[in-house]
Amino acid sequence: MLGEYPIQGRGAAEIAASVERAVGAGELEPGRPLPPMRELAARLGVNPNTVAAAYRTLRERGVIETAGRRGSRVRSKPATTGREQIRVEVPAGVRDVAGGNPDPTLLPPLADAFAAAAALGDRDPVLYGSDPVEPQLARLARAALAADGVPDGPLAVASGSLDAVERVLAAHLKPGDPVGVEDPGWGSLLDLVPALGLSPLPVGVDDEGPRPDDVRRALRSGARALIVTARAQNPTGAAVTAARARALRSVLREHPGTLLIEDDHGHGIVDVPLHPLAGATRHWAFVRSVAKAWGPDLRLAVFTGDAVTVDRVRGRQRLGPGWVSRLLQRAVARLWSDGAVDTRAVAASYGSRRDALIGALARHGVAAHGRSGLNVWVPVPDETGAVARLLHAGWAVTPGARFRLASPPGIRVTVSALTPEETGPLAEAVAAAMRPAPVRTYA
Fold first, then answer.
1. Which of 61, 78, 118, 252 is the most exposed place for a label (fewest CB within 10 A)?
2. CA 96 to CA 413: how far, in whole Å?
3. φ and ψ at 215, to 5 degrees?
4. Spatial distance between the Cα atoms of 383 and 391, rounded to a whole number of angstroms
5. 394, 93 in Cβ contact below 8 A?
6. DSSP 3-state helix, strand, coil percentages of the chain (rounded to 5)?
7. pLDDT at 4 > cutoff 80
């Protein structure tokens, strides 16, 4: 059943670690069945309850799943393996439009902001017991959130969007709880949910955001939380419109106990207005990161939410990292107050690149999506074939499998560094890659 890999260990933790190591190393493949608990217990010479505890730990960590009498097996996409492995290695001479990164030329210089933050730190050092949130950052963040219609609430700072989302989920949910997630959606988030022992429920997405009927279906199926990308959805570029926001708020009001998390990681690079859902449920969090517009290495996100949620997160944060560096917070506040990024110009630049590619694809009869953000999503009939043909033609794109649960295949093209001269050839290559391969005949 397990091929050459022997599960080892005498205690539950050792057995669970043995299985998880094998999954991470690829020795136990997705979908591989595990031995029945009594059989493995006999083989290891331990009590069946020990194996049961190990399997329970693996389920909670998102490594395996159990289907009643059919037994336990490695999850089809175990949290241990991660979607980062679903990528294309870019050979020399191939144009990389797969990375998902912002254009470095549109990021602000950081030296002056950090020098000013360090000088302030010299005059006013941050010590244990200091406020975990930089007052100037809080003032700027609150003003910007209020201007966008986000309800007032206490403010906290995390090390990026994913860190904030993880902390909010952990503050309310327990292993096994279902969570509604966008499909296609952010690959890292689709890894995080099962890694926390939670169960993802796919919610379909169109250009206007999550589909209300799919959200309703997920909530009626028991989803305890819903995660929504406000704008610049990865990978499709979807952005929640005013009409869609009204429809989603109506659905959420039918389920007021739902934990709502909104991710606005596209803040600063988007050319569409924000239509927040925050406040439609009792417990909510709205997360805004600086990575895309001010620099991925800044690793900072501010978030607000209801008092209970933010208090739980900050309380747990105190017992771990304590706080996000106030030096970093001061540098970000300086970047914001100095207007280091012309957000309208940046959004317009990305918008023109998306529109140019979508238009060029349309002229070849290829439909594509990208209302906002850095990426264009192209549905394809054969994902593997399209990626391979494009690579052969000199273009590296991201396989859609990295972003999908149950949605149809597609490819993601990052347009952030795409030049006008490249747009036409890329569109032509995508169209050619979608055509059926010629049938060979032999005499």
1. 118
2. 9
3. -65, -45
4. 12
5. yes
6. 45, 15, 40
7. no
Confidence of residue 88 (pLDDT cuts 50, 70, 90): low
Is residue 227 within 8 Å of 181, Cβ to Cβ?
Answer: yes
d(CA 205, CA 267): 20
- pLDDT tens digits, one per residue of 289-307: 999 999 999 999 999 999 9
Q: Cα(101)–Cα(90) distance, rounded to whole angstroms?
A: 15
- Which are the contacts of 147, defined by CB distance < 8 A and separation ≥ 6? none
Q: Cα separation of 228 and 213, whole Å? A: 14
Q: What is the helix (H) or strand (E) element at residue 262, kind and residue range? A: strand 259-263
CA angle 163, 168, 173 (to 5 degrees): 125
pLDDT confidence of residue 285: 98
Q: E strand or H helix at 377, and its extent? A: strand 375-379
Residue type, 332: V
Please answer whether residues 399 and 411 qualify as being in contact, where contact means their C-beta atoms are separated by less than 8 angstroms.
yes
Neighbouring-strand partners of residue 66:
72
What letter represents residue 45's amino acid? Answer: G
What is the C-alpha separation between 344 and 293, in angstroms, rounded? Answer: 11
CA distance 280 to 385: 43
Report d(CA 324, CA 102) in Å as an integer.
23
Q: State pLDDT tens for residues 18-46.
A: 888 888 777 888 888 999 999 999 999 99
Backbone angles phi, psi at 87, to 5 degrees: -150, 165
